[in-house]
Amino acid sequence: MYQALLIRYGEISLKGKNRSFFVHKLIENIKNALKETGPFRIEQSYGRIYLYIEGRPDQYIEKLKLIPGIVSVSPVAITEVNLEKIKDLALGLFNYSVKTYPTSFKVETSRPNKDFPLKSPEISREVGAHLLKNINENYNDKLRVDVHNPEHFLNLEIRKDKALVYTESIPGVGGLPVGSSGKGLLLLSGGIDSPVAGWLALKRGMTLDAIYFHSYPYTSDRAKEKVLDLAKSLSSYGGKINLFINHFTDIQMEIRKKCPPKYTITIMRRMMYRIATELARKNKNLVLVTGESIGQVASQTLESINVINEVTNLPVLRPLISMDKNEIIQIARMIGTYETSILPYEDCCTIFVPKHPVTRPNLRDTLEAEKDLEIEKLIAESMEKSETVVIE
Ligand code: ATP
Ligand code: MG
């Protein structure tokens, strides 16, 4: 029944002369996200993208719904710009799209093609009458037109080269196409939060690289696999991610040996931020992105965030900062990272967690607590032992 998907993009059309760049990015991302879904062909025309498909639209829509920059998607049936053909197609689609007949409907027409002899309301009336006549023959005259509160909609669009008929618009996530804003570095753990933070950054058009602090053998290779899987999920929304796997074990051992237990978490986080900052500078990432949310754990009080943030002068984006866990989980499920995140492999922080971590650290005490660490040396050594995996 459906030959194509009509893809609408909103915000990007506001961006003036950058527009073609944005649309180009969006098309690239669509191609990348659908590469394993099935055959398709893309056409770009008058502020719209048409995706010609084979087979059922559902599997394509599932992917498109989550691609940043897409506002909505409609499966459309297409015919020639000819009223009789439009009427027949409308009737066919109406029958196809309803499981049980509604009692009321409305036809809505838009007519960007001003050469078409009838005006929009006239087209709606003609097509509506055709549906009433044909359906009511077998439906005891139970179907009627209701322009205010119809049970079912039928939309027509009369364009220069084709006429479209469709019945639904499935909302997309909106936002901006990945690759249309700058590049950030995501601190990606195997938990629930950081992949969601990464996705929200992608949603605003950012490109991401990621860093994972791995504490082998205290965290197993399976924990690392989990992070690779999460990065793979994120890359499906917008292409390549360079994932840096930092060898963090020696730093954690040093912290445990030389710092008071109460402060180990705060100091460990400061080390993560320092390494991420150095990597970001090398790699031209403009910002760091983390999955922190106020008050979620001891290291995420405002006092902790303050002391941890002190080691970097890059902006740190925290897209989850005011979200509750259940809101975060909802997004994690939607983007398909939740099931991976809850796999039980240990996280570097849970292994080194002290019994009573300080929840309201201050900078003076933290500096005192970390004074015996050879910070520069530890960072340089751990950077040397890091590996990079390109995820796409
Ligand atoms: P998540 O669910 O993302 O692991 P969390 O609730 O466990 O977060 P924390 O352990 O306090 O919270 O971590 C806060 C943030 O620090 C994480 O969201 C992530 O951005 C970063 N982070 C923590 N551990 C690591 C790690 N091993 N590698 C990379 N980043 C990490
Ligand atoms: Mg975690």
Provide a brief overview of the structure.
The protein is of the alpha/beta class and 392 residues long. It has helices spanning 19-33, 58-64, 83-97, 120-136, 193-203, 221-235, 249-258, 264-283, 302-309, 325-335, 338-341, 348-351, 363-369, 375-384; strands at residues 4-8, 40-45, 48-53, 72-79, 104-110, 144-145, 152-158, 163-166, 170-171, 183-187, 207-214, 241-247, 287-289, 316-317, 387-391.
Can you give a write-up of this model?
The mean pLDDT is 93. Helix 5 crosses helix 10 (325-335) and helix 7 (249-258) packs antiparallel against helix 8 (264-283). The chain has 392 residues and is α/β, with parallel strands linked by helices. Strands 1, 2, 3, 4, 5, 6, 7, 8 and 9 form a 9-stranded mixed β-sheet that branches. Strands 14-13-10-11-12-15 form a 6-stranded mixed β-sheet, with helices on both faces. It has 14 helices and 15 strands. The protein has 2 domains: 4-171, VC0802-like (2-Layer Sandwich); 183-391, HUPs (Rossmann fold, 3-Layer(aba) Sandwich), CATH 3.40.50.620. The chain is elongated and about 85 Å long. Magnesium ion (MG) binds at residues 189, 191, 347, 349.
Total beta-strand segments: 15
The low-confidence parts are none
Named CATH topology of the largest domain? Rossmann fold
Query: Measured on Cα atoms, how large is the radius of gyration?
Result: 27 Å
Count up the domains.
Answer: 2
Bound molecules: adenosine-5'-triphosphate, magnesium ion
What percent of residues are in strands? 15-25%
Into which percent range does the helicity of residues fall?
Answer: 25-40%
Kindly provide the name of the CATH class of the largest domain. Answer: Alpha Beta
Largest beta-sheet details: 9 strands, mixed
How far is it from the N-terminal to the C-terminal residue, by CA? 34 Å
Counting helices, strands and paired strands, the structural category is: alpha/beta
Query: What would you give as the CATH superfamily of the largest domain?
Result: HUPs
Number of helices: 14
Judging from the principal axes of the Cα atoms, what is the shape?
elongated
SSE pattern? EHEEHEHEHEEEEEHEHEHHEHEHHHHHE
CATH architecture of the largest domain: 3-Layer(aba) Sandwich
